Amino acid sequence: MKKVGINQFVRRQIKGSGKTYSDQLSFEEIAEHAEKQILNGKYKNGYRDGVIIVSVSNELIKNFVCPFVKIKNNTKLFANFVRRSPGEDPYIQICALNGKLLTTGKVNLVLYSNEVLKENKENSTNCEWELISILSIPKGINEIPMGPVTMMRNQLNLKGGTKGNYSSADWAKSVKFWQNYAVLKSLIN
Prior knowledge:
The longest helix is centred in the N-terminal third of the chain and has 13 residues, at 27-39. The protein is globular, with a radius of gyration of 16 Å. It is an alpha+beta fold. Helices cover 20% and strands 26% of the residues. The protein has helices at 27-39, 114-118, 148-155, 168-178, and strands spanning 4-6, 43-45, 51-55, 68-70, 77-82, 91-96, 104-113, 129-138, 181-184. It has one domain (4-187): Protein of unknown function (DUF3228), domain 1 (YaeB-like fold). The protein has a 5-stranded mixed β-sheet with strand order 1-8-7-3-2. A 4-stranded mixed β-sheet has the order 4-9-6-5, with no helix packed on it. The chain starts with a strand and ends in a 5-residue tail after the last strand. The chain has 4 helices and 9 strands.
């Protein structure tokens, strides 16, 4: 039996979504790679039990598009009221209208255990793990903190969130990072 399946939530990460995506690799190939990396111990624990972060091998990093720009004094920002998926509360999404896309330095794959996904009936397979998110990290940055809207959704256990609690330091790192980086609007349809 396959160890890593594909959750429907990650399938939104395609060209035009403003999210990390790959034109070169299918979701199935990415899930297979995650399974190999787990077997090789190339992962770390996530924000709670049942969540792991799998590192993509250096050979495959070039296959992923990083959607982020560094916010500078001349960056023009755009706000939009959006929903991640039907039934979730909308949130204010901030995008950059200009800027140079940052080069992908590394890529993390976020996997949730089947048990965690079943808490909110969000599992898409019966696999032990499911690929939930693909996150490209710009060169020179060690890691990207979870976005504050996602943290809020999780901590308040709102629809679309997966129960979690965060320290004040986690919140501060998230807000600081997302005050300095944004998705380039031209990557969003």
